[in-house]
């Protein structure tokens, strides 16, 4: 899948541990739309390991790695850890990084704290492009404060970063809320739906949870299709083999594209005849369905998929 597509289609977010040069090197061949270099859970919680990972990533990003900066994100350690300040100072000043993934954001005040550190880093090393921020929803407090988080704006303007997406960290969320995961995922339906609706209300992307059954591709496909039906714009991956399935599942099917093309054509014809609706294969099609069809075609075009021409 092309890395030049707009944000309307950026479905796969692959985590890459920064604990070894080998893993960093392998990321260069990944087709994932976004690669999240992980300084948090992907590194042992020891000061020496955290420091080594940070320096290793700095050298890697500073070299000629040929990755488009729009594909590069870094998950830093959260604001309560002793590693946060060094992470933010180093990563926020890197021109190779366009996106920060922030774990354990519980409130807008947490984002203000991060934004202040981004601003201070930008005063030392000015950025050409503002940092995108992805806020991870992984606690009951975050869920409760979701509207405030999604509506947050930096008091420092673009120099303090801009929020572009909400991400659901299901395992952390379950640990915080005592929710017990089941194969049906029914217990997470409310929170996942809430994240999507709030994200869309504020013009943000919504990134669905990791499929922890990384060797079971049937479960992954099921989760992907469910996430897409709920309105998520993408999904996290923890193994390179998950990427292609995620990309495929979040793109419209040929049947969906054909139906969308028929709806657009049918309503254009109806409008030319001063009609506001038209019948199509037993369904009554009107303005809301036209918006859905146009969105499907927009995604299909971004993915480089074939869009049929409907004859008059």
TrEMBL record:
Mg(2+) binds at residues 138, 172. Its cofactor is Mg(2+). It comes from the Eukaryota. Substrate binds at residues 75, 138. Signal peptide: none annotated. One of its GO terms (biological process) is oxaloacetate metabolic process. Residues 13-240 form the HpcH/HpaI aldolase/citrate lyase domain. Keywords: Magnesium, Metal-binding. Pfam families: HpcH_HpaI. GO terms for molecular function: lyase activity; magnesium ion binding. InterPro entries: Aldolase/citrate-lyase_domain, Citrate_lyase_beta/mcl1/mcl2, Pyrv/PenolPyrv_kinase-like_dom, Pyrv_kinase-like_dom_sf. PANTHER family: HPCH_HPAI ALDOLASE_CITRATE LYASE DOMAIN-CONTAINING PROTEIN, LYASE BETA SUBUNIT, PUTATIVE (AFU_ORTHOLOGUE AFUA_4G13030)-RELATED. This is Citrate lyase subunit beta-like protein, mitochondrial. It comes from Hypsizygus marmoreus (White beech mushroom). The gene is CLYBL.
